[in-house]
User: Which sequence fits this backbone?
């Protein structure tokens, strides 16, 4: 869907009844879901709804995933989920249901359009019309975290070649089929040279296949700053999971309100539509929440289901309502608004305007699935020639003296096939030739290398055994491979 791109066109054949699963969600979820469904039905949506209970109630019943085992079959047979926001309980022992659904059902692309609605909704950026493509399955959201020592906790950041390729390709395909002029990549590859470096390199490779679309790359910190200050500079943005999560909230908020932005989560065989905001417990039950994010997500979903006519009617009635100055509290202002309304009154106003087109904001013709880019299955790289040239052994040691630790490590591993070459603490080289100023914890990465010789897995096991025999505790190991001669591991900071 392109919010501002096309003239309204209502000449599409009637679509079949669509099967969808609906989860009302927590907090403001039930209020805004009721409003969104009323508007969708009034616009002519033809839906067969299968309700599923997700979130708080399921967590409270003792299911730490937030979803009942039986609900998966309801979701899979519907193929589409329309979801209200759910609350993730604080504290350990609970997993985010949103992340679980996105990953379990392979929803790799999270598409978040954010466009200004000036002069009807206050925004400092009247020209803003940005679509963010957030990679939805990988990165720090792999959810693999460990406490390794008394002092140090770890979260794994995983970025794959196929995962990176398909989100970037999807962003370019979307740009091509929606008449967008530019795709920008945000990464932090000056620091994370392997993971974010892969994302940037893949972006450069794929952008060359789309010469008609401009492409640029921004380090995420300055990119986010520019997005907040001058969003008109951007058109389509593609980025990894965490950065995408953060910048899409920023983009939604500066376009008017976080309550307005929808989100489509797309996979090869399943799709989920929701608002980008959360369950807003601070205003739940008051009837004041803005249902717009979910209404627009509903329009995205109807387009995806082939009900473009209903989708366009819904979105144009929504634009007309906004243009008429009928606003919920989050976007209400004395200057721009005419009437402050609650959730249900806002839905009533949209329903009254079904069939109307906005006069000043551009009307839309919501795209359907047949116009959407084809999502190619991920391309898997040919296996490289791998050579095991060393291992990083992570050691817990409370003496906090790297020279002392190095002496003990070297003495313990004299008979082993790989030799100690470096010790780092939180990534900074502290041996050989560390500086006393460097702060150190009880968590040491000890690099053993074979000087290019191809090691066997048993050589790694011998190293671990040798340390264990001297009461040196290995808490984790990471093999060091070269791939076609290129090191698949980073240097220590200061190495
Ligand atoms: P939030 O988005 O729920 O709320 C942030 C602020 O925006 C609050 O002041 C809230 O009142 C306001 N707001 C949000 N939506 C609004 C709307 N439609 N109308 C008017 N104002 C709105 O973020 P949070 O407070 O950080 O998170 C609350 C809960 O939601 C947490 O449990 C979090 O895990 C969950 N969450 C769920 C989703 C999801 O289901 N996709 C997304 C984000 C957060």
Assistant:
């Amino acid at each position: 869907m392109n919010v501002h791109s096309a003239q309204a066109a209502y000449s599409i054949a009637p679509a079949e009844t669509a099967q969808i699963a609906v989860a009302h969600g927590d907090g403001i979820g039930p209020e805004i879901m009721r409003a969104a469904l009323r508007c969708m039905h009034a616009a002519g949506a033809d839906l067969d709804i299968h309700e599923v209970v997700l979130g708080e109630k399921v967590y409270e019943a003792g299911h730490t995933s937030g979803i009942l085992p039986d609900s998966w079959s309801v979701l899979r047979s519907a193929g589409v989920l329309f979801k209200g926001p759910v609350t993730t309980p604080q504290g350990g022992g609970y997993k985010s249901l949103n992340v679980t659904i996105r990953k379990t059902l392979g929803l790799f692309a999270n598409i978040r359009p954010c466009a200004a609605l000036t002069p009807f909704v206050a925004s400092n950026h009247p020209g803003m019309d940005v679509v963010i493509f957030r990679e939805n399955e990988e990165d720090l959201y792999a959810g693999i975290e460990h406490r390794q020592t008394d002092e140090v906790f770890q979260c794994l950041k995983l970025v794959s070649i196929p995962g990176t390729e398909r989100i970037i390709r999807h962003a370019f395909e979307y740009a091509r089929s929606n008449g967008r002029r530019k795709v920008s990549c945000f990464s932090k590859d000056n620091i994370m040279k392997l993971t974010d470096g892969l994302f940037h390199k893949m972006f450069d490779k794929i952008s060359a296949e789309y010469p008609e679309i401009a492409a640029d790359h921004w380090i995420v910190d300055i990119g986010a700053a520019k997005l907040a200050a001058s969003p008109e500079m951007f058109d389509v943005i593609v980025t990894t999971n965490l950065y995408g999560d953060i910048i899409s909230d920023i983009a939604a908020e500066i376009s008017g309100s976080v309550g307005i932005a929808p989100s489509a989560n797309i996979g090869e065989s399943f799709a989920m539509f929701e608002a980008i905001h959360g369950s807003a417990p601070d205003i739940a039950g008051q009837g004041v929440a803005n249902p717009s994010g979910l209404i627009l997500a509903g329009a995205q979903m109807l387009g995806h289901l082939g009900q473009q006519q209903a989708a366009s009617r819904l979105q144009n009635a929504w634009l007309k309502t906004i243009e008429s100055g009928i606003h919920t509290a989050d976007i209400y202002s004395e200057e721009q608004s005419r009437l402050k309304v609650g959730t249900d009154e806002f839905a009533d106003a949209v329903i009254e305007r079904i069939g109307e087109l906005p006069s000043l904001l551009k009307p839309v013709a919501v795209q359907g699935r047949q116009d959407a880019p084809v999502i190619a299955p991920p391309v898997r790289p040919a296996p490289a020639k791998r050579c095991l040239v060393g291992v990083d052994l992570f050691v817990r040691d409370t003496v906090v003296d790297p020279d002392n630790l190095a002496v003990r490590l070297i003495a313990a591993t004299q008979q082993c096939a790989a030799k100690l070459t470096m010790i780092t603490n939180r990534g900074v080289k502290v041996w050989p030739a560390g500086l006393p100023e460097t702060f150190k914890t009880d968590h040491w990465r000890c690099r053993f290398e074979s000087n290019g010789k191809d090691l066997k897995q048993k050589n790694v096991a011998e190293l671990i055994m040798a340390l264990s025999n001297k009461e040196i505790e290995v808490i984790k190991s990471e093999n060091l491979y070269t791939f076609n001669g290129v090191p698949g591991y980073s240097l220590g900071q200061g190495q």
